[in-house]
Amino acid sequence: MDEDERRRRGGGPPSSWRNGPSSWRDGSPSWRNGPPWWSRSDGQQRRARRPWLSTVLVTVFVLVGSTFAAHAQEGGRAPLDPFARVLLVVGSGLLLWRLRYPVVVVFGTAAAAMVYLGAGYPYGPIFLAVALACFSAIVAGRRWAAWAALGMLWAGHMLVAHWLYRWLPPSGDSAGSWGQELVVATGTVAIVAVSELARTRRDQWARERAERAQAARRRADEERLRIARELHDVLAHSISVINVQAGVGLALLDTDPEQARTALSTIKAASKEALGEVRQVLGTLRTPGDAPRAPAPGLDRLPELVEQAAGAGLTVEVDGPPPRLAPGTDLAAFRIVQEALTNVVRHSGSRHARVRLDHDAGALRLRIDDDGPATGADAGGSGNGLAGMRERAAALGGTIEAGPRADGGFRVLAVLPLQVELEEDDR
Fold first, then answer.
1. pLDDT for the residue numbered 281
2. Contact call for residues 374 and 348 (beta carbons, < 8 A)
3. Does the pTM of the predicted model rise above 0.85?
């Protein structure tokens, strides 16, 4: 039964709604970064729906408030007539386009208010429309338009109240007081200050959202690269062993079945271990917060690595005991040795390799040598394996040096800092 049919039968909302709106499924409402519409770009604002409800409410409030103001100022100001009501409706109705055309709206509301005051109509809530238009313009980044419109309105009010009142209605009107001008100027500054504060806060929210999104993308990229390195190291080593043993098995299948059976056993063991490690790597893609099902490999598994290399026909000598390392450093050291030995199996004619471990209070030094000669165009591991080793070392603040030796062999030298262990022990 599909979702629409289930809803028609009264089965409740679709399954995608069961845990609330999609923006709340992470455990917090989307408003924690500010109102959603404050983060829209200019292109999104142009496509935004017009604010009908707020504009109608403001228009009704301005008309009703101006009617009460006219009764309170009766005799001192000109009574409201149809032209005054048209100015009130126009000044408030322009707010319908304040998101799309903030410059036009802020100048239009200021002009309507100036004509209204110049005609001698009573003071009232017509200034509310100007304040909202100014707020929208500043939040949209049109500061110059908001300041210019408010400056034009204040200058017009000064002219009407102190000079043009002699020739403008109502007749017999006197000059306005300078105290009134101070109130108007204070209100203008307050509107600008509140609008600038709102814009600053919106920009801060936008920056925080962008930084959070960038950090999430960076973490996703780092995790993707980490998983890619793990899969490459696991599969490259195991498949190299399987490839060598498969060749041995095919060559000896008729002449030495017992040796061929040993090669097949090695292939089975290598493939089983590879599958286990791949499952462990892919397990990190499960629900965040789940604990790993198996510990990550480290240098304590060097004997297993040596045994696997022996199955591929490579004799490995290990010199130096593995030190106690932090988990991240231990995994990186193991993978570096694993990849270096895999490169010896795949790209070197030598069947003998040496692994030397040295460490002091500050760093671990891994040196992997083979006697060569190199075979193949990409001898030495110049592909993803060497790049992965360098990325692992760089992530810990270490270095990797890899290249041919003067005597014809190849050397990989890794230096990994040990401060990570100390930091984790202190926590």
1. 66
2. yes
3. no
